[in-house]
Amino acid sequence: MANSYGKIFKLTSFGESHGKSMGGVIDGCPSGIKIDINLIQKQLDRRRPGQSKVTSQRNESDKLEILSGFFNGLTTGSPIGFIIENRDHKSKDYSNLKSAFRPSHADFVYEKKYGNRDYLGGGRSSARETVCRVVAGSFAQQILKSIGVDIFAFVSSIGSISISENIDKLNLDNIDNSIVRCPDMNSSELMIKEIEKVQKQGDTIGGIITCIAKGTPIGLGSPVFDKLHADIGKGMLSINAVKAFKYGFEQKDISSSKGSEVNDIFIDNSGKTSTNFSGGIQGGISNGNDIYCEISFKPVSTLLMNQETINNKGEKIIIKAKGRHDSCVVPRAVPIVESMMALTLLDHYLISKSDKL
Amino acid sequence: MANSYGKIFKLTSFGESHGKSMGGVIDGCPSGIKIDINLIQKQLDRRRPGQSKVTSQRNESDKLEILSGFFNGLTTGSPIGFIIENRDHKSKDYSNLKSAFRPSHADFVYEKKYGNRDYLGGGRSSARETVCRVVAGSFAQQILKSIGVDIFAFVSSIGSISISENIDKLNLDNIDNSIVRCPDMNSSELMIKEIEKVQKQGDTIGGIITCIAKGTPIGLGSPVFDKLHADIGKGMLSINAVKAFKYGFEQKDISSSKGSEVNDIFIDNSGKTSTNFSGGIQGGISNGNDIYCEISFKPVSTLLMNQETINNKGEKIIIKAKGRHDSCVVPRAVPIVESMMALTLLDHYLISKSDKL
Amino acid sequence: MANSYGKIFKLTSFGESHGKSMGGVIDGCPSGIKIDINLIQKQLDRRRPGQSKVTSQRNESDKLEILSGFFNGLTTGSPIGFIIENRDHKSKDYSNLKSAFRPSHADFVYEKKYGNRDYLGGGRSSARETVCRVVAGSFAQQILKSIGVDIFAFVSSIGSISISENIDKLNLDNIDNSIVRCPDMNSSELMIKEIEKVQKQGDTIGGIITCIAKGTPIGLGSPVFDKLHADIGKGMLSINAVKAFKYGFEQKDISSSKGSEVNDIFIDNSGKTSTNFSGGIQGGISNGNDIYCEISFKPVSTLLMNQETINNKGEKIIIKAKGRHDSCVVPRAVPIVESMMALTLLDHYLISKSDKL
Amino acid sequence: MANSYGKIFKLTSFGESHGKSMGGVIDGCPSGIKIDINLIQKQLDRRRPGQSKVTSQRNESDKLEILSGFFNGLTTGSPIGFIIENRDHKSKDYSNLKSAFRPSHADFVYEKKYGNRDYLGGGRSSARETVCRVVAGSFAQQILKSIGVDIFAFVSSIGSISISENIDKLNLDNIDNSIVRCPDMNSSELMIKEIEKVQKQGDTIGGIITCIAKGTPIGLGSPVFDKLHADIGKGMLSINAVKAFKYGFEQKDISSSKGSEVNDIFIDNSGKTSTNFSGGIQGGISNGNDIYCEISFKPVSTLLMNQETINNKGEKIIIKAKGRHDSCVVPRAVPIVESMMALTLLDHYLISKSDKL
Fold first, then answer.
1. Whole domain around residue D43: which residue ranges?
2. How many whole angstroms separate alpha carbon B255 and alpha carbon A207?
3. CA C286 to CA C219: how far, in whole Å?
4. Intervals of chain C under pLDDT 50
5. What percent of chain A has pLDDT over 70?
6. Sign (positive or negative) of CA dihedral B108, B112, B117, B121
7. How far apart are CA C287 and CA C283, in angstroms?
């Protein structure tokens, strides 16, 4: 398995949802940087279950404990080890799922790959792992902030409901005024109703998160394999339930456009362009304009309704999830998206330090 | 810069289009595998300019020369060094572009990042680099073929024209019967006309390539960061002009769907599912069904028409490309897409050898 | 910083001796392997202080807690997160060392490199970090044992006292019958006396550990940069206080020998040779004979006697260590040497799985 | 196989001695650095056979051809591809060795590992590969020179003959006045005679190279696994025929010394110490004093005399090498040692750029 992300600023995570704790190590964090642990906890709270009526009512306090690499409010340059206890893990009831292969879950492939399956909680396939990404991502986000980079993510679609305002007119301060994290307050209301409707049906629904990074320095990313958007794309596609990634500020679909319609014209030699179809990245390298991408999530596979499937003997069975599950994970995924953006940008920032001697 | 792709089966490429040759090293290729060099040359020919009326009329014979790691038709386990001469590089005339920052090209960011710019041919940002990917990808494709994996890519959209047949009804043997590499022959005709129309305008057009891998073993990919689709996505997004990636067999848009509509039901314990919205990958791990993804290309940024831009003194200028340029690169990108799929799948296949002792 | 070791079987460690706990993540451990936690604890006990009269009398129980990746006695294929509490860390008194740069310690370079210094316990330069290597190394050692590889390390010199018996006549079962871990019981007695003598002087003494791996499969290691002995050498040189590494069974000094004196003659086509000057590795690749190497340790730099040095203002000062320090770390380093050998061999074993398809 | 060296400044090499050419790619070279190709050629000439009466009389002109990444005398930030033709490869006569496993060569392990063997020239086990290290190392050496680092290597022992002068009294300008590259001219004469004597016997002889780096910045290296000396040690141990590595300026054997005898006392807060037993590295991190290490080479395994061995059927045979072989490779290895030192120091220099933000 490969449980590390990043080349210089590198997160290695561990833990299963049924175990004692989740945790990780951040290696390669520069020394002497001030970090506010409260802001990390705030990001964890934006991700945790039980935060509003549109999320699962499970109760995980997700309290961060830092074990190393941090002293007197500053990073020391040493690896930052951390753990987050799994408080709620004992109350789960998975006995009915012990032998079932749930549709569109990792149960089947996990058992084939590893010869065992963690029926208690999905093993490493559980989205609980993302709690570690938020810890490391929040470190990265604060470090980037200190060099002028601001990262925003918000929900732009839930099911068939999409933001109606022009995206660059949105008031991003509104993101957390909406429990679905949609800063267009009209759309937000409709999204909440959509989730509640689906919830009552025992069904689930997908959606889209838009992520914007402002203030990114010019020159991050490499021109060949490690194009900045390719690495951002990989980071986003590695989030549970993500099915698609695109970048570029698009009022129109770029693949069906003509070059004369979507080329971005330079305004001056700061690199500012009159349009931003490039999404802040040209030839794989950041150009100083806003980085702009969209991440599509499928609906959660766990349904509170009967579904046909097979068990590990190949017999057809009917399953129905019990308990407290999310009907839509997209609002909770907002801090995870921010984290993957932050991890990727900071890593490329540190990599770019050796572009010149 | 980072000019390597893969962890075990690793390609490192080098070369600029104006230099003497492109080249690369394939490290980590297992020994004793029979490779047909003619098949590699065939893939290079599918990629090269001048192959049909819808591509650039530049003339690059793209003759592969293998320098090491290959003996008597077999891989030896040693690194495979190779070069491809740049025959046509002297005739290019870029003098008018020496100081211009072309819109939506890498010129501006390249000069900021490296303090120099390869005005002779775009340096490492030139799509000529992909010739090396096709060499390595073709090695990988042949190796995968020997373990039962078949990779197909084809053009499914050009501009607003998309395949009209149901995708799983397509006759994939038709791909190379179409100069745009669209196996739906009716759509193919329309696409050719669309490109010719745009060509006459001096404009360019984007499109979409669909890639399918059949026969992939169960168990490739990791459940956390190195999800199989995340690594495929990164590979595809690293191809020049790619703006978006999605995976999963989609008749409908998955992010606006309900879970009950898009969960894939297992048919039997071979892992076969009745639908394939998962695109052959669940929880980041291949499940034995066809891998299925779509890659969106923007229109080429080089236009044979006047465009406003700035030069490196920040002055506004008008540029217009001269010479032989592609109006649509999507048909030529088909073997590149196949190559990135092959490189990624083979690497994960070799990685998966240590899942168990 | 770089706190990871290995390519496929990879340990990432964290923690400082003054913090709450040490810990690490083992990524890439194959699934389904039986591990005896008691044997890991036994290796930790061989390393810990306070185990005999020749070691520091500090009291660290070094109790291992595994947080993930291990279930019902078997590895699961998930990353193995673990911690070991630092029980004794509060009682340390380092106030007199807060501003001093101790001779031949990392204090000076650490402060220059990171802009801070962990005067409480040496930060990542403390040998306490090796506790994590022993945990991961013990996992590796047990896995190797299951495929027939046995690793032994023992003390062959302390100061000027060296093993007097011919090394291949030694009874390796005697290693732990000696508190200095020297299986030649006569030499063992002399070594104990030597350490006690130095201890009384407040001084310290170096020594040599010999490490032997029996039953290594043929074919581990690569012919160029990642020669097996180069990677073993790096692992050993990364242990605190190690100054030199050599490999090969040497009755004579190989660099002053003639080829006709030290070439190993093959006996049969199993690869067995009549002599083993090659130390089980030819051209960087294991040949099935015993792997054999020697690791030299300098004397501990912390002395219980007055030493001249400077403080961080550049002023000359006199320091003298207080408390419980080792006069000779070599006996305690035996399980660490075994661990680095095991980590390196297992990693190369997993890498070698892709030599052929 | 693993044919790359370095993390940021990374060499990937390819080629076999019987093939058309050797070659490599240097990835991660910062842009805008002036490189004198003549100085690289000079280093290649110091390594090549046929340069004096004490080396093999084979004739390889070792002419470097750079294919990319270098323009108008400056590095561009793009990967530097290069090749060196194998001119002399056709004249070799290895037919008598086709089925023999030569003693202390890689023939046996290579055939077991890869299922094939390059009897034409040892495949990747041939020391001809080091020509690529010298190219990349010479780039690194020139870059380091520009930041004040000077690297010297010289022969300090051949067989039982060692430098008689105190090492820090040596005039390093004399190195290339000696065909064995020993700057102590009296010892040099004795070494030449020793090699000539061995040569007449058809035998071979080993020796030791000392390497010194002056002007290294403080702070290179990491405190745990990637200690600077561990990485230098790995680089040196990866050179063909190297059997041992030690670091530290040693008039006495450090492992048999007491702490009070070998601790280095700081003179002032520049980090200068009165002695340099630490060899310029403390706790794995450079301290600004001269880096100092010794590398021991075994005698060449190819002898011009009869040796007993087996063939690949397990039959006992007698072999005797024909043609032009080195009786002692140590003098030719001097630029290789310098190269591995340069590659390692430059890589750590670039890594250290992200110690702080």
1. 4-355
2. 5
3. 5
4. 91
5. 96
6. negative
7. 9
Helix (H) or strand (E) holding B88: none
Interchain contact A297–B (C-beta under 8 A): yes
Sign of CA dihedral C194, C195, C197, C202: positive
Cβ atoms of residues A247 and A291 within 8 Å: yes
Structure tokens of A23? 């945790």
* In the predicted structure, residue B120 carries a pLDDT above the cut 80: no
Instruction: Answer whether D161's CB lies under 8 Å from D168's CB.
Output: no
Give the tens place of pLDDT for each residue, A240-250: 999 999 999 87
Residue of B nearest to D71 (CA): B118
Asked if D355 and C114 come within 8 Å (Cβ–Cβ), the reply is yes
Confidence category of residue A95, pLDDT binned at 50, 70, 90: low
- Identify which of B2, B109, B268 has the shortest CB distance to residue A226: B2
* Pair of tokens at residue B346: 């083979």
Q: Rounded to whole angstroms, what are the CA distances from B127 to B326, D236, D248?
A: 11, 39, 50
Q: Does C318 touch chain A (CB under 8 A)?
A: no
Interface membership of B230 toward A (CB under 8 Å): yes
| Neighbour subunits, B (≥3 Cβ pairs < 8 A) | A, C, D
Q: Is B262 on the interface with A (CB under 8 A)?
A: yes
When pLDDT is cut at 50, 70 and 90, the band that residue A167 belongs to is confident
CB contact under 8 A, B16 and D68: yes
How many whole angstroms separate alpha carbon C43 and alpha carbon A318?
49
pLDDT band at D90 (very low <50, low <70, confident <90, very high): low
CATH number for the domain including C205? 3.60.150.10
Q: Pick the residue with more confidence: B197 or B96?
A: B197
Question: Would you say how long chain A is, in residues?
Answer: 357
Binding-face residues of C in 185-224 toward B, CB within 8 A: none
Which band of pLDDT confidence, cut at 50, 70 and 90, is reported for residue D340? Answer: very high
pLDDT of residue A116: 82
Please tell me the total count of domains within chain B. Answer: 1
Contact yes or no for B299 and A262 at CB 8 A: yes
Mean pLDDT to the nearest integer, B3-29: 96
Task: Give the C-alpha separation, A298 to A296, whole Å.
Answer: 7
Size of interface A-D (CB pairs under 8 A): 36
Global pTM? 0.97
Are A258 and B308 inside 8 Å of each other by CB? no
Q: Judge whether residue A320 has pLDDT over 80.
A: yes
Q: Which two tokens stand for residue C98?
A: 């807060």
| A33–chain B nearest CA distance, Å | 25
Kindly tell me the sign of the dihedral angle through the C-alpha atoms of C260, C264, C267, C268.
negative
Q: Distance between CA A21 and CA C75 in Å, rounded?
A: 17
Find residues 4-33 of chain D whose CB sits inside 8 Å of chain A.
8, 28, 30-33
Residues 73-112 of D with CB under 8 A from B: 74, 76-81, 83
CB D344 within 8 A of CB D231: yes
Identity of the residue numbered C75: T
Q: Would you state the structure tokens that stand for residue B61, as one six-digit string?
A: 């014979």
To the nearest whole angstrom, how far is the Cα of B28 from the nearest Cα of chain C? Answer: 8
Residue B252's Cβ-count burial label (10 Å; 0-12, 13-18, 19+) is: exposed
| Residues in Cβ contact with C260 at an 8 Å cutoff, skipping those fewer than 6 apart | D203, D204, D303, D305, D307
Query: Would you call A352 an interface residue with chain D, using a CB distance cutoff of 8 Å?
Result: no
Q: What angle do CA D132, D69, B299 make, to 5 degrees?
A: 135
D96 pLDDT band, cuts 50/70/90, is low
Contact (CB<8Å) D77/B113: yes
What pLDDT was estimated at residue D251? 66
Query: And the tokens for D141?
Result: 């050496």
Q: D16: how many CB neighbours lie within 10 A of its CB?
A: 28
D266 touches chain B (CB under 8 A): no
